[in-house]
Amino acid sequence: MRFVWNTFVKDWRRRWRNPVEILMWVGIPLIVGLLIALAFGGRSGPRPQAHVLVADNDDSFLSNLLVGAMSQEAAGGFIRAEAVGEQEGRSRMDKGAATALIVIPKGFSRSVLREEPASLVLVTNPSERILPGMVEEGLSIFVDGVFYVHRLIGEDLRSFADGPPAGSRTFPDESIAAFSTRVNRIADELKDYLSPLIIRLETSVDKKAGEDVSFGLLFLPSILFMAILFMAQGLSEDMWEERNRRTLRRVVFSPQPVAAFLLGKALAGAALIFIVSLVALSVGYGYLRLNPATMPAALLWVTLSGAMLATVMMVLQLFTTSQRAGNIVSLAVVFPLMLVGGSFFPFEAMPGWMAAVGTRTPNGWALQRLKDIVLDRGDTASLLVSFAIVIGVTALLLWVCAQRLKHGFAQG
């Protein structure tokens, strides 16, 4: 154990003599995470909103009602209406400063109440594709609504179109009472269709399909394991450094077991992985407001699975013929693992066949287990089995490395 400890301390001190490398390892998940957060609009993600300019040349009760219906609150936050003059609106649309411009012509309210032809002018921004369609769809709903309202109370609306009688500012009480009575009767006739509704929508959550996970949470394990794979590749290259310094030859011919030397190096690498994971998970848990009770298990899992991936890279280095070949081979393995194993794209965004392959890669499998830990899903027994598998595979790979050192690699 003393030899293991001395190897650990030796590697630990050597790594900290090159702080730039450690800062790069720590910075990879932080910088990539920051860029993704900025690209997707922060913690809650972007919310599409159409900026609509409204030139109301009619300035009537009905036109004001239309503008109010398109306000931010009434439209669920997807449309932000701004009243402007027609010339100003067209000028701003020419500059691409809004999603759409709606021009309400004079006499619009009277034409609608009398069910006469009326035109709304809609000018859309060609540089936007989805939001102008939302505005156009909203106006089509308004047109359909006017049609059905006229089928029910069109006669009354036409009587109100010309305004109050001459010499009066309001409609006669008899007209208002008759209109209210008619509306009440129509509501009574339609109650069987409106209350209760003929169609009832019931929703349920498929627990097997997974919880409602934010996009940021999907990317947290992906970013972290991207950094871990880069670290594993960098740590494995140290075997060639040890060989060039003749350290491996002295270890093989010393009375100390080679396995103890490799265990010390693995522990030093795991300690560095622990530091990087601690920083990344602390930032991720704080930013995404995750349950802090799951963080210790997540930190332990990333550290152990990272050590396993580092030993995988170490095996690849030991079975190559030169340091350059080892670098090429390890990079040739790392990037496909990142692509298929969920580091570049979450499994939820992949085609089914690719996700099935990716979850069976070493890093993809570890990434899925981390996601289960963070989301606090899965039973304790399966989690313990996963920990046992990681420890067992790491021990087996270290034994393979020890055999390779004894039979050829250290003698080069």
Q: What number of structural domains do the residues give?
A: 2
Mean pLDDT: 81
Per DSSP, the total helix count is: 16
Kindly name the structural category.
Answer: mainly alpha
Radius of gyration: 34 Å
Q: How many E strands?
A: 4
Characterize the structure shown.
There is one protein chain. With 412 residues, the protein is mainly alpha-helical. It folds into two domains: 2-42 and 214-411, no CATH class; 50-163, 3-Layer(aba) Sandwich (abc type-2 transporter like fold). The chain is 65% helix and 5% strand. The protein has 16 helices and four strands. It has helices at residues 2-16, 19-39, 61-69, 86-94, 108-113, 131-160, 173-194, 215-236, 238-244, 247-253, 258-288, 295-318, 323-340, 352-358, 362-374, 380-406; strands at residues 50-56, 79-83, 100-104, 121-124. The protein has a four-stranded mixed β-sheet with strand order 2-1-3-4, sandwiched between helices. Helix 12 (295-318) packs parallel to helix 16 (380-406). The protein starts with a helix and ends in a 6-residue tail after the last helix.
